[in-house]
Amino acid sequence: MTDLQKLIQLQEIDSELKELNDLLGDLPAKVNNLRQEESNLEQSVADGENRLKEIELDLSKMELSETEIKEKIGKYKDQLYLVTNNKQYDALMHEIDHLKEELDQQETRDLELREEQTELQESTKSKAMTLKTLREDLRVRVDRLEKMIEESAEKKAALEERRNEQVSTISAIIIARYHRVIQARHGMAVVNVEGTACGGCGSMVPPQIVAEVKAGKGIHNCDVCSRFLYWAE
Ligand SMILES: [Zn+2]
User: Fold this and answer.
1) Max alpha carbon distance in the chain (Å)?
2) Which of 11, 90, 222, 232 fits a disulfide with 198 by CB distance 3.0 to 4.6 angstroms?
3) Could you tell me the residue ranges of all domains in the chain?
């Protein structure tokens, strides 16, 4: 096997490794995103439930206080029949008006709280349902992703072993050049000549070089992008 043929194989291994590394790079982030989504939803459901408890407590306190106010108003109204002068009457009426105002405010607040309660009950219920579905879905997806990570890691180890073997059969000078090019050219160091153009950057390759590449004579690099050139049958 010529050095060029070995380089073509090495490029194939490196392309596969690059794909695997990209995949492995993305997967843990995907797992994290799914977990984050679940935990955000959990927090939101818990917040909703806590607020609902607060509202319930407030409502029952207000109910008590409304009953008390109503009783007081009733008592003052009864006393109205017993007053003997205008001054006492005015004083009682003033108290009653004041209590009615207080009652009015409480009832408004009561309505507001009940409205909030209804909305929150609905949204919390719907979030809880989403959470339930998400959890089931999440488990399946995380399992699948973790299996992929595991399989990719095994595949990567095997490829790296093959890579080391391949590298050891190629001369050190050529390997050094290969590594420089693959780093500079985003993982693609060996390309075929397409007609008279470099398959990597599209630059024109001189006819003499095309002829030699076609004949498989020696090692040639593109003048512009430095990639190794071969002729694909
Ligand atoms: Zn080129």
Assistant:
1) 128
2) 222
3) 13-170, 177-230
Question: Do 162 and 13 touch, CB atoms closer than 8 A?
Answer: yes
> Judging by beta carbons within 10 Å of its beta carbon (0-12, 13-18, 19+), is residue 82 exposed, middle or buried?
exposed
**Residue 208 pLDDT more than 90?**
yes
* C-alpha 229 – ligand 1 centre gap (Å): 8
Pick the CATH number of 13-170 from 3.50.50.60, 1.10.287.1490, 1.10.10.10, 1.10.1530.10: 1.10.287.1490
Q: How far is the centre of ligand 1, averaged over its atoms, from the C-alpha of 51 (Å)?
A: 65
Q: How far is the CA of 222 from the centre of ligand 1 (A)?
A: 5
Q: List pLDDT tens digits, range 143-177.
A: 888 898 899 889 999 999 999 999 999 999 999 99
